[in-house]
Amino acid sequence: MTNMERDVEQSIDIDLVKDETIIISTKEAAEQEKKYGIIESFRRYPMATFWSLFLGMTIIMAGYDGQLVPSFYGVGAFVNKYGSEFEGQMEITAAWQSGLGMGNPIGQVVGTLAIPWPSEVFGRKKVLFACLILLSATNFIQFFAPNLPTLCAGEVLAGLIWGAFISLAPTYVSEISPLPLRGILEAYMNMAFVIGQFVAAGAIEGFSRRTDKWAYRAPFALQWLWCVLLLVGMFFIPESPWYLVRRGRHEDAKRSLERLGWSDVDTVVQSIDQTDRLEQEFLIKSSYVDCYRGTNLRRTEICSMLYVIPMLSGLMMIAYSLYFFELAGMSQNTAVKMTLGNNAIGLFAGFCSYVAVSLAGRRTIYLTSLFALMILMFVIGGLDCAPTYDENASFSWAQASLLDVYTFIYQMTTGPMTFVVLSEVSATKLRSRTIAVATASQALISIAVTIAVPYMFNPENGNMRGKIGFVFGGLAFLCLTWSYFRLPETKGRTFRELDIMFERKVATRQFRSYNIYDYHSSS
C-alpha cells in the first residue's frame, strides 16, 4: 500500500485502518475481481448467474401481468363482458381504463415501500416465499372477477406483490453478482419485463379468437404456473450474503458465498463487512429518512429519476400499443399480431443489450438512447398531422413501425441502464429502501400517466392518436436535459468506490476518470 493510499484510507475510515491486513486483502480482491473478463466470470460464478436469472422470473411475472389488462381492451370477449355501449359498439370507457391502469401502480407504491423492513429482518428468501404464496391467492380475484370493480381490486392487490418483487429482485441480484457481471445481470431485470410482456402478448394472441370467458381467463390462469415454479426454487435459493453479514451471521454468509461460486469467501466477507462499516462511518443508516439526508439525497434523486424517465418519454404508448393500433384502423387480429411482433423485437433487443452494457459506459448509452427516443416521439406525432392521415393507411403503418424502432432502442439501452445504474448508485445499506423509493416514484408517475393517456387516446375524449407523441417528446427533452447534468458514469466501480465518490461530492462528469486515492482531485 502506498503512502497516498494509506492517507486516503485514514481520511475516510479511521477504525478500519487499524487492521491493515484486511484493508490490503479486500483492496486486492476488488482489483482482482475487476480483471476478470465476462466469460471468465461466468465460468467462475455459474451459480450466482443461475440464481440471478431464476429470481428474474418474478420480474417476468410482473411484466406479464402489467401487459394483460391494457391488451384486453382490444379483445372482444373481454370488452363484451366488462364494457359498455358507445355508438353501437362495446368498449371499456376511458374512466375504467384509467381505474384499471391505476390499480397496479397504486398497489406497487404500498408494496415497494413496505417490503424493505421485513426483507431486512427476515431475509430476502423468506419474504420472497411469502409474497409468492400471497400472489397465488390474489390471482383468484383476477381470474373470477365478475365485474370491473372486483377486477380493479385484484389489480391493486397484485400490485402490492409486484412492488415487492420489483424492489427485492434487483437488490438481491446486486448483492450476489460479481463486479464484471453486475451490469449484465441487472440488465436482465429489464429483459425479464420484456419476456413477460412477450409471453403475455403470445397468450393473448393464442386465446383472443375465443368468444367465451376463456379468452381472458386463460391468460390470468397461466400466472399460477409461474408461482409453482418459483415456490419450488425458493427452497434452494441461497440467502443474500450482504443480509447475513449485516445480521452478524458471518459463517452463514460464507456458506452462502460458497454456494454462489466464490472461492476465497473469507476475503469477500471481510470486504462486505468493510463496506458496511465504511457506510457507518459516513453515518448512513437504514431508514427512509436517511434516503434524503446528506449525499444520499443525490443518490435517491438519480435512482428515482431513472425509474420515472421511461414513463415520461413514451413507454406508455407501448403498453397501449394494441389499443393504439386498433384506433389507427387496424383489425383486432392485425393489431394483436403487431403487438406480439413489437414484444418479439423487444426480446431481441434485450439480448443485444448485453453487448451494449459490456462495451459502452452507462452515461453514454443513456444520453444517446434518450435523445433517439425523443426524436421518434416527435416523428410519430408529426405523421398524425398529415392531411391525408385518415385516408392513407400507410401513415398508421409508419407509426407502428416507429413504435417498433422505439421498442428496440429502449429495450437495448435505456431500459437496461435503469436497473444497472439503480443497483450501482444506491448505497448498499440503503439499497432496498432507495429502490423502493424509486419504484414508488415510478408508480406515482405511472398513475398520473395512466389517468391521462386513455383520455388522450379515447375517441370520446381527446382522440389524439399519434399526436400524443408531441407530449412525450417534450417530456423526453426535459428528461434528457436532467440526465446530461445529473447522471454519473458508474461502470467498473465497486460499491465501496462509489460510496467514497458520492461522499466527496464528485461532479457528475468527473465520475468516469476520478481516482479515489487522489483526494485533492475533488477539491
What does this structure look like?
- The two termini are 23 Å apart.
- It contains 24 helices and two strands.
- The chain has a two-stranded antiparallel ribbon.
- β1 and β2 form a beta hairpin.
- The longest helix is centred in the C-terminal third of the chain and has 33 residues.
- It has one domain: Growth Hormone, Chain: A (Up-down Bundle), CATH 1.20.1250.20.
- 76% of the residues lie in helices and 1% in strands.
- It is globular and about 70 Å long.
- α8 runs antiparallel to α11 and α16 packs parallel to α22.
- The N terminus is likely disordered.
- With 523 residues, it is mainly alpha-helical.
| Coarse morphology | globular
Q: CATH homologous superfamily?
A: MFS general substrate transporter like domains
Taken as a percent bin, the fraction of beta residues is: under 5%
What is the CATH topology? Growth Hormone, Chain: A
Please, how many helices? 24
- SS-based structural class? mainly alpha
What integer is the average pLDDT? 81
Order of helices and strands: HHHHHEEHHHHHHHHHHHHHHHHHHH
Query: Which CATH-level-2 architecture?
Result: Up-down Bundle
In the residues, how many domains can be counted? 1
What is the number of strand segments?
Answer: 2
Strand order of the largest sheet: 1-2
Query: Low-confidence runs (pLDDT<50, min 5 residues)?
Result: 1-25
Task: Report the biggest beta sheet as strand number plus sense, adding barrel if it closes.
Answer: 2 strands, antiparallel
User: What's the Cα radius of gyration?
Assistant: 24 Å
Separation of the first and last Cα atoms: 23 Å
Q: Residue share in helices?
A: over 70%
CATH class: Mainly Alpha
